[in-house]
Amino acid sequence: MEMLVLEPDAFSMRWYQTLLEDEEWHRALFNSFFIGICATIIATTLGTLAAVALNQPRFPGRRTVMALLISPMVTPIVIVGVSVFFFYSTPWIGLSQTYLGLILSHAMLGAPFVVITVTATLAGFNQTLMHAAASLGANAWTRFRRIQLPLISPGVITGALFAFATSFDEVVVVLFMGGLEQRTLPRQMWSGIREEINPTILAVATLLIIFAVLVLFTVEWLRSRTARQLQPN
User: Which CATH number, 1.10.3720.10, 3.40.50.360, 1.10.357.10, 1.10.10.10, labels domain 14-230?
Assistant: First the structure.
């Protein structure tokens, strides 16, 4: 049986160099960033609009809609993967093994994080600012763009970071939905462990850990900034 062995006397940057020179890893890294960025844009846009809509005082069925929006977060990922595979594989949709299918699937997984973070930020938002702007003649779009969005932007950015991290780290849906051209970094790592033990995987894992730590520090910084902005003067 092959095993990953770390040799104490063989520390080097060799496997990072292999990572930079291997075309398969290049393709996987490009796919992860491309799918992650596109999915994050969709998830952030739709999640922010949904959170703002749910924050309206007279929104009907708020709890039911919120439960539906965050359901991908609490549903086992295998069930999600099987569901999107059968849904996108139907002849009248045909998005299985396509970039668009993966982007939409990852956007669905990331949107709940945006909804939750933006909703939490809106809980401390001073609605009198919107009422004052409305009394001065500003329409709904102007009030949202000039007043509400700048103040809740830390929450939006935090949700976007979580959505991107979710997409970048996801492997189960990719196994169901992705073809050979759509291999992402986690999918390539999974294949490397399953088909061929390669120390390059350890180099990739180290970079992913560093990326996760940076995301956590960024989220904490944004959380602190949001708390300061929403504190009454």
Answer: 1.10.3720.10
